[in-house]
Design goal:
Layout (H helix, E strand, L loop, with lengths): L3 E5 L6 H12 L2 E4 H11 L2 H10 L7 H14 L5 E4 L5 H9 L6 E6 L2 H8 L3 E3 L4 E3 L21 H15 L1 H9 L2 E5 L4 H13 L1 H4 L8
Parallel strand pairs: 1-3, 1-4, 2-3, 4-7
Antiparallel strand pairs: 5-6
This protein binds adenosine monophosphate.
The site of adenosine monophosphate (AMP) has 17 residues, from helix 2 and helix 3.
Length: 217
Amino acid sequence: MGRNFILLGPPGSGKGTQAAMLAGSLNLLHISTGEILRGEIAKDSKLGRQAAVYMDKGDLVPDEVVFEIVEHVLGTNRKAGAVLDGFPRTRRQAEMLCEHEIAIEKVIYISVPDEEIVRRLSKRHYCEKCNKVVTYDDEFCLVCHSPMTVRADDKPDVIRKRLQVYHELTEPLIAFYKEEGCLAKVNGVGTVAEINRRMLATLDNSDENKGGGIDNT
Ligand code: AMP
C-alpha cells in the first residue's frame, strides 16, 4: 500500500494548487474529485450530467458516486499512493476510506478565514480547455489563451452555499482526523511558496510535531 495524504480545507483555500505541488514533490498521484467531476461535465457524460445537478447549486455529489471515482483512480494506477484533494468531504466518505482499508498517512488541514475565502473565490476564473481554476482576473488563460469563464459554482450565491456546506459537513472531519492522530494544521494565508514550505515542514517534522506544533486546532 502506498503513501496516501488528504488535503482538507474550505473551497478557495488553495488545496488544488498545494495538492498538485505536494504530489509532484512526493511522486504521488494527485486526485481532485472536483476536477474529475468537472471533466465529466465537460464531456457531457452520464456521470457529469448527474453531478452537475448538485455542483451547480453548491451541494455535494452523493458519497457513493464520489467514492467510486476515487476507488477507480486508485485501483487503476500503479503509483505509490495519492494526494486526495477535495475528498473526503463528509464523515461517511472518511468512513468509506477506512472500510476499504485505504490507509492515510497524514491529513493536512489548510486553514483560511471565511472573509479571505469569499474575497478569493469572487476573483476565481476557470479555463474550460485546461480544466483548471485560477485566481487572476485576466480575460484569457495564460496557458492556452482561451477565454476564461466563471465556474458555475463560483457564482456569489453558490459560493455562500458551498461555504455553508463546508462548515456543516466537511469541517467536522478536522475533529475526526485529530482524534485519529494524523492531523496537521497549516496556515493557508500567504504566498503559494510559503504555504508549500509549511506543508512540507509538517511532513519533515512529523515526529517532533506530534506533541503539539503540528496541530493547534
Ligand atoms: P472542488 O473543485 O473540490 O471545490 O469541488 C467542486 C464541487 O464538486 C463541489 O462543490 C461538489 O459539488 C463536488 N465535489 C467534489 N468533491 C466532492 C466530494 N468529495 N464529495 C461530494 N462532492 C464533491
